[in-house]
Design a protein that fits this description.
Blueprint (H helix, E strand, L loop, with lengths): L1 H26 L2 E3 L6 E2 L18 E2 L5 E3 L5 E8 L8 E5 L3 E2 L3 H11 L7 E10 L5 E3 L3 E5 L6 E5 L12 E5 L5 E7 L6 E2 L12 E4 L2 E3 L5 E2 L5 E7 L4 E5 L4 E4 L11 E2 L1 E2 L7 E8 L2 E7 L2 E8 L2 E4 L4 E3 L3 E12 L2 E11 L1
Antiparallel strand pairs: 1-4, 2-3, 3-7, 5-6, 5-8, 8-9, 8-10, 11-12, 13-18, 14-17, 15-16, 18-19, 20-21, 20-24, 22-23, 23-28, 24-25, 24-27, 25-26, 26-29, 28-29
């Protein structure tokens, strides 16, 4: 009798164990809802700088969830210029079913994606959802149309290189008014000191506070070399950096450095076009434009410049103001033009 009871109990425990395992096995299966429908409150956007803090549009979408065995599911909005097939999108992770960027945010995003100021652009948006790389789904694509505006802001760098006159100081530009400014300054021997001013006057200025920081009580900031330097100032963090940029220069027997040493041009910080300028003494001879003191990218030919074009001739010696305007396709230089005005 006892044997029969023990056998019955054992059979019951085995059955219960198998049922529990089956139940646990069922719980390991996750069902993740695919990305749902993405909808926009507007698709033709009117971007005006004075409305920068206003909502540009509202995107609505369902947030994907998992049932069964619950796993984290990430929902991400992807933005990219139309025709790029989301190859290098701007991504924003979302945790709720709406996203309402401001006019400023949309404008800055279009410019960051490669849109041009004043040129109509189309941006595609989609929702990406999933828990793993091999379990990703996408929503429908919504196309937004907008024309980005120039949102630049400037600060200034009066210094010894231009006799400490704020009215004529070189500028540093922030293309998106995000508080980070950059620009090129041509420092000369013995004139390496400068300061930063928010306006072209001495009412408020920033100087060197040590270890790459600035303050209104700081001393002069000094360039380490008497060459063209890239100066970057972050007013959000009160920091600055000075680096040697890869920029455009002229080289040739008509220039001060001959075919051995480059004479650097300085970018015009207007935030609109890639324009470089230089005033220098030229002699009769030839020269070319090149990037980064290297022949990999060089421009020559007539007033309309071509990559790898011929040498540019200088017939009459004198002091010239040279202006170089680049033509680009995306981030790639395809040519340009130049002017030479004799003083």
């Amino acid at each position: 009798m006892k044997s029969t009871i023990f056998k019955s109990l054992a059979l019951g425990l085995i059955t219960l164990s198998l049922w529990s395992c089956k139940k646990d096995e069922t719980q390991t299966v996750s069902n993740i809802a695919p990305a749902g429908t993405l909808a926009a409150s507007a698709t033709n956007l009117n971007l005006v700088q004075s409305n920068g803090t206003q909502t540009a549009l509202t995107l609505n979408f369902p947030i994907s969830t998992a049932t069964g065995y619950v796993v984290p599911v990430t929902s991400t909005l992807q933005f990219d210029l139309k025709g790029k097939n989301f190859s290098t999108p701007s991504e924003i992770v979302v945790t709720r079913g709406t996203y309402a960027p401001t006019v400023t945010q949309v404008n800055n995003m279009i410019l960051a994606l490669g849109g041009k100021v004043g040129t109509p652009a189309q941006v595609e948006v989609r929702l990406k959802s999933g828990a793993a790389v091999n379990d990703i789904s996408y929503s429908n694509v919504v196309t937004l149309s907008a024309t980005p505006y120039l949102a630049s802001a400037w600060i200034y760098a009066p210094g010894a290189y231009q006799n400490w006159d704020p009215a004529t100081a070189d500028s540093l530009v922030s293309l998106s008014s995000n508080g980070i400014y950059t620009g090129m300054i041509a420092f000369t021997p013995g004139k390496l000191a400068f300061k930063i001013t928010p306006a072209k006057k001495w009412d408020l200025s920033y100087g060197d506070a040590g270890t790459g920081t600035i303050s209104t009580s700081g001393g002069d900031i000094n360039s380490p070399d008497a060459v063209v330097k890239q100066v970057t100032v972050d007013l959000n963090k009160s920091t600055y950096t000075i680096t040697t940029p890869k920029e455009w220069s002229i080289i040739g027997d008509a220039t001060p450095g001959g075919w051995v040493t480059d004479t650097d041009l300085k970018v015009i910080n207007d935030g609109k076009a890639m324009v470089y300028t230089l005033q220098t003494t030229l002699v009769a001879g030839e020269f070319k434009f090149r990037f980064g003191h290297d022949w990999a990218i060089n421009l020559g030919g007539g007033t309309t410049l071509a990559l790898g074009g011929g040498n540019i001739k200088v017939e009459t010696p004198g002091i010239y103001t040279i202006t170089l305007t680049l033509t680009k396709a995306g981030d790639v230089v395809t040519g340009g033009s130049y002017t030479m005005v004799k003083k």
